[in-house]
Amino acid sequence: MANIDCERLAEHSATAKRAKEGILSGTDLARVCRIFQLLSDPGRLNIVYALMKGEMCVHHLTEVCGGTVSAVSHQLRLLRENGIIKAKRIGQHMEYSIADEHVCEIVALAVKHLECEVD
């Protein structure tokens, strides 16, 4: 180990050891990053946030989030392909909803974080 100049070397070494034992594999890290990449787009996040209120078709999502049906459909496809939302056919239309509650929790926590005061 390199010569480290740290006043709390033992404490930090123990923390680093615990962190290294729990580090994500490359595959899992890439999958988690992909979720955050998808949610970092304002249009997609708006769609997810709207779907947290309940199922909707592309036409109602376009009304709520703005844009064109084509653009919203494209974002829905990306979200669906990556397991963030799901779709079901109702007659000739597709209705979209959140794939699982973890997605809602991630978004709700991010919104809640807006209230935090950081030192």
Explain how this protein is built:
By secondary structure, the protein is mainly alpha-helical. It has one domain: Winged helix-like DNA-binding domain superfamily/Winged helix DNA-binding domain (Arc Repressor Mutant, subunit A), CATH 1.10.10.10. Helices cover 60% and strands 10% of the residues. It has 6 helices and 2 strands, in the order αααααββα. It has helices at 9-21, 26-39, 42-51, 58-65, 69-81, 101-113, and strands spanning 85-90, 93-98. Strands 1-2 form a two-stranded antiparallel ribbon. A hairpin with a 2-residue loop joins β1 (85-90) and β2 (93-98). The chain is elongated. The relative contact order is 0.11.
Helix fraction, binned, reads: 55-70%
What's the level 1 CATH class?
Mainly Alpha
**Share of β-strand residues:** 5-15%
Counted beta strands: 2
Summed up, the helix count is 6
What are the secondary-structure elements, in order, as H or E? HHHHHEEH
Residue-averaged pLDDT: 91
The count of domains is 1
Q: Which second-level CATH architecture applies?
A: Orthogonal Bundle
Neighbour order of strands in the largest sheet:
1-2
The helix/strand class is: mainly alpha
What Rg, in angstroms, do the CA atoms define?
20 Å
pLDDT under 50 segments (min length 5)?
none
Indicate the overall shape. Answer: elongated
Main sheet: strands, sense, barrel: 2 strands, antiparallel
CATH superfamily: Winged helix-like DNA-binding domain superfamily/Winged helix DNA-binding domain
What is the end-to-end distance? 33 Å
CATH topology: Arc Repressor Mutant, subunit A
